[in-house]
Specification:
about 110 residues; mainly alpha; 2 strands; about 65% helix; about 5% strand; transmembrane; membrane; transmembrane helix
């Protein structure tokens, strides 16, 4: 599981008439990724609204990483905590359901 904040990833787009279609699909994938994996609905809406504006320009445009760095990625630590709790509960249930019968049978037949 990667916990690197997405605020360090910056996408540069430089559109020409030949790469407009490819850039369009990249833009749509970026929008879909942010809308599916974002934990902050308002921030996600703002970013999704600004991303398509760079589609038909020939000037390189980047999304501002400063706001996201200063705002902080609130969901990163929450997702990490959820992952750790889920993993711990899975390991505990695996110990109980799979190892307990083995240990019981070992002591029973000695």
């Amino acid at each position: 599981m990667s916990v690197a904040p997405p605020s360090t990833k910056i996408l540069v787009t430089n559109n020409s008439p030949l790469s407009a279609l490819r850039s369009f699909f990249c833009s749509q994938l970026a929008i879909a990724e942010r809308s599916n994996f974002s934990t902050l609905a308002a921030a996600s809406f703002e970013e999704n609204f600004k991303t398509p504006s760079a589609l038909f320009t020939s000037i390189p445009r980047i999304m501002s990483a400063t706001k996201r760095i200063l705002r902080g990625e609130v969901g990163t630590f929450c997702n990490l905590a959820k992952y750790m709790v889920l993993r711990a509960s899975f390991l505990l249930s695996a110990d109980i359901f799979f190892l307990a019968p083995i240990i019981f049978n070992t002591f029973l037949f000695q």
